[in-house]
Amino acid sequence: MSALLAILALTLARLLWLGLNEPNLYADEAQYWIWAQTISGGYYSKPPLIAWTIAAVTALCGNSEGCIRLFSPLTHAATALILAATATRLFDSRSGFWTAVVYATLPGVSVSSTIASTDALLLPAWAVSLHALVRLRESPSPVWWAVLGFAVGMGLLAKYTMAGFVLSLALWWLLERGPKPALTGPGPWVALSLALLVLSPNLVWNAVHGFATVRHVGENTNLAQGASFKLHKAAEFFAAQFGVFGPLTFASLLWILFRRDTWRDPRTRLLAFFVVPLGALILGQSFLSRANANWAAPIYAAGTILVSAWAVARARILLLRASVALHVAAALIIFAGPLVLAAVGHELPRRYDPWMRQRGYDVLGQAIAREAATHSGARFLFDQRRDMASLIYYIRPHPFDARMWKPDGIARNSFEQTAPLRPDDPGPFLYVTRREDPADVLSRFEHADRLARLVVPTHRDSALRYTLWRLEGFRGYRD
Q1: What is the pLDDT of residue 229?
Q2: pLDDT tens, 53-93?
Q3: What does the pLDDT look like over 218-243, one tens digit per residue?
Q4: How does the average pLDDT of the chain come out, rounded?
Q5: Quick one: pLDDT at residue 257?
Q6: According to the model, what pLDDT value does residue 409 have?
Q7: Cβ–Cβ under 8 Å, residues 377 and 470
Q8: How confident is the model over 350-366, as a mean pLDDT?
Q9: What's the pLDDT tens digit per position in 391-446?
Q10: Cα-atom radius of gyration of the chain, to the nearest Å?
Q11: Residue 221: its pLDDT value, please?
């Protein structure tokens, strides 16, 4: 009950913040919202669950930034409580309480709770899968096999990183010396069948679209051009985990993983198997090419239980309290700091603003809409995915018929796949670009008139700068 009340209070605070403070949608969030306008079995760069979820919540409360992000604090709250139940099952109720509180206040979770992200959907599926495995370890019930299969399927619909759970599960089952569920009987087949059934819409979509999402994920690793072997990139990724998981909690997790006792106890060994393989894989990816800091997020499900249970068992509650206090302080700085400074007349420079990439697009969209009002019948044209996503959302009415410049014929993003400018489309277009003199684009039209240079200040040292052109008579990408 204590864990439930703590998570409820924190979630209400996050919901209140979303209602009162709505930073502009980041470009990826805007793109997910655009996807949600057309329900599909898949999309170019992500599986479909994020779009399905946004479609559901916006049908209930509208298309504001806060509503689009509404599911994130709720799913993270659910993840915290599921992990608490798992920790209680493996260890005791105090470990469960601290697991919930530590997870819910992790810096990465605080940030993820206020944006529309695939991690917010992946992590509850990962937590349910881990809980189902713990229950199967106790008693191989067909019900928990079904729960495991369903959760794995949902996780894969959220983000393909869920395959890391399957990898950890396979390694744990192969190497585990203690109790584990047998693979005989109908249970494993039920799990596999359910996982494939849940994932089937995305499998069918990928098959029809040349496995576009799978190929994109592969391209996103940047390994096709060869490994770069950049030690400093791996060091940056490793250092970033102190920020994502918190400095004390991440340091404690590393200490726990290097202790022999961790690998002797079947309970902690199980959890370690859901930390080390994926963590090592992504660390290796950061060395070979690149890796975003949040790619390791799933390892902190089992990682939070490990740290909390270890601290409780050794009466290191002060460590957990200090960690939570540090996490809360960091959240206050991120979420309240800019508002407080603005209230006393001090504006942060762009580099120190945690929301630096989420400023000004609402004002820019209004300015573009005013300029476009006298050009009815002209559709918008963009040359960058991020600009197209953000401005389809912030230009009103939403220009869903906008087109993307695609000179080489190769689709590298969702808009180039679904809304490319085709050679047989003469226009007219309202071309929005960051470039002042995009000669390569202008030269391919019979008429090109510059309508406006739009400058929207976002910080005292930064502004959004775009040029708006009216283009007519597209002659194709080449003669």
Answers
A1: 66
A2: 999 999 999 999 999 999 999 999 999 999 999 999 999 99
A3: 666 655 555 566 788 888 888 989 99
A4: 92
A5: 96
A6: 83
A7: no
A8: 89
A9: 999 999 999 999 999 998 888 899 999 999 999 999 899 999 999 899 999 999 99
A10: 24
A11: 60
CB 175 within 8 A of CB 214: no
End-to-end CA distance of the chain: 71
Q: Where are the domains of the chain?
A: 2-225+315-335, 357-474
d(CA 112, CA 121): 10
Residue 20 has pLDDT above 90, yes or no: no
Q: Output the pLDDT for position 218.
A: 66
Nearest-angstrom CA–CA distance, 225 and 79? 37
Q: Identify the pLDDT of residue 233.
A: 84
User: 100 near 117, Cβ under 8 Å?
Assistant: no
What global pTM score does this model have?
A: 0.94
Q: How many other C-beta atoms can be found within 10 angstroms of the C-beta atom of residue 290?
A: 18
Residue type, 20: L
Which residues 6+ apart lie within 8 Å of 432 measured at CB? Answer: 368, 380, 381, 382, 387, 391, 466, 467, 468
CB 108 within 8 A of CB 147: no
Other C-beta atoms lying within 10 Å of the C-beta of residue 417: 18
Contact 450, 400 (CB under 8 A): no
Query: CA 159 to CA 238: how far, in whole Å?
Result: 22
Main-chain dihedrals φ then ψ at residue 139, nearest 5 degrees: -155, 120
The token pair that represents 412 in the structure block: 């590298």
Residues 103/105/107/113 CA torsion (nearest 10 deg): 90
Q: What angle do CA 35, 41, 46 make, to 5 degrees?
A: 60
Kindly tell me if the per-residue pLDDT of 21 is higher than 90. Answer: no
- pLDDT value at residue 220: 64
369 neighbors 395 (Cβ within 8 angstroms): yes
